[in-house]
Amino acid sequence: MIQRPARVIAIHADHMQVAFDPASACGSCGSKKACHGGNPEHSLQLPVQAGFSAGDEILLGIESRTLTLAALLAWLMPALALLLGAMLGQAMFGSDLAAILAALGGLAGGLLIARQLARRYADDQMQPCIQPCFQTPTGSTS
After folding, report:
1. What is the pLDDT of residue 133?
2. What is the reported pLDDT for 65?
3. 3-state secondary structure string across 24-60
4. Is 1 among the domain residues?
């Protein structure tokens, strides 16, 4: 399980907003503008869970298998659909223009399929688990 410390910043009727600091490498990445890695804090909305209030320190955890599945849905599905569209366009019409147009259609179809699959699994299977952080007071020994 991959875990990340976070903080509850707001509780709403249907969701709670949590914030976490970006990884230390985020500021030096060449793609930081694309993923907002230069921001000092990232936040996301999660379903409300009982027992948490604004200001609570929590641990967000996600199974490695779930993260791998999400990456495959987001990246591999559209890429495969793009390649399949290009091959079908070339095979059916025999021109580069048809291959390019079919590749774009395949990409669009792959993105739509990935979006639908992500919505289907987003309810329970791809939600991170949330645990309270229990910190020992400074100076105490265990």
Report:
1. 72
2. 87
3. HHHHHCCCHHHHCCCCCCEEEEEECCCCCCCCCEEEE
4. yes
Over the stretch 72-96, which tens digit does the pLDDT of each residue have? 888 999 999 999 999 999 999 999 9
Give the count of domains, the chain: 2
Domain that holds residue 103: 63-128
Q: What own/partner pairs with CB < 8 Å and gap ≥ 24 does 86-93 have?
A: none
- Does residue 137 carry a pLDDT above 50? no
Triad 124, 75, 66: Cα angle to 5°: 30
DSSP string across 78-142: HHHHHHHHHHHHHHHH-SHHHHHHHHHHHHHHHHHHHHHHHHHHHTTTTSPEEEE---PPTT---
Q: Last residue of a domain, which of 44, 62, 80?
A: 62
